[in-house]
Amino acid sequence: GYCDQQRVTKMRYFAISIFVIIFSVLGFADSFKSGHLFYANQDKSLARNLLLVNFHGAPGRISLAEQGYLQMLKEAIAEGPSTMSVNEYQDQLFALGAEIEATVASNVVSIVLKAPPENFSKALALLKSTLQTLRATETDFKSYKERVLANAKANFEDMRTVTIYYANRDYMKDSEQIKNGDSSPNAIEKLNFLDFQKSMGLVFNFEHV
């Protein structure tokens, strides 16, 4: 259910946070035109090299009612660049032994890349291509919205999920700590294509990828 997914997300974010602390000496920071920082941290000691890119403050740039756009961003990143088909993208990841995953936690969007050392540069180029040429047409948006809405409806069948969701918003109001991509079916229903495009530009600036 939604609560279990939240626990998994928090565990993943905790693990990612540990990586940030351990590997910060290997990291670098830069600033986008949109004004917020991103941090990239790499660890080469694992069987597969790991690169973590955090867009700190990105969810906070999107209103609480529009956090569903961040779930759509995750869907877009999972499908790879618009310059190839989804199947071609997945085949390339498989051939490289690579994984690319986006997560959203309290006021941070994170992208994790894992790949064997010998294929890391090719996997990194694939990630860069994905971020620079996201699938973001109106048709893509409708597909993302349909999937995100279906997931939200399934999660909201659990009354505990509904109670926790609205209780957090009532207690924490518009705090950036609850800007984590979570959204209700009603809120997702109201999302539109033009605001989706604007929101993606607030998360990161493609020119700087």
Can you give me a brief rundown of this structure?
This protein has 209 residues and is an alpha+beta fold. Helices cover 50% and strands 16% of the residues. Strands 1-2-3-5-4 form a five-stranded antiparallel sheet, sandwiched between helices.
Summary keywords:
five-stranded antiparallel beta sheet, 8 helices, single chain, alpha+beta, 209 residues
Termini Cα gap: 35 Å
Give me the secondary-structure category: alpha+beta
Largest β-sheet summary? 5 strands, antiparallel
Query: Stretches where pLDDT falls below 50 for ≥5 residues?
Result: 13-36
**Order of helix and strand elements from N to C terminus:** HEEEHHEEHHHHH
Count of DSSP E strands? 5
- Fraction in helix: 40-55%
General shape: globular
Radius of gyration over all CA atoms, rounded:
17 Å
- Helix run count: 8
Explain the overall architecture:
50% of the residues lie in helices and 16% in strands. By secondary structure, it is α+β, with helices and mostly antiparallel strands. It has a five-stranded antiparallel beta sheet, sandwiched between helices. α2 packs across α5 (138-155). The radius of gyration is 17 Å and the shape is globular.
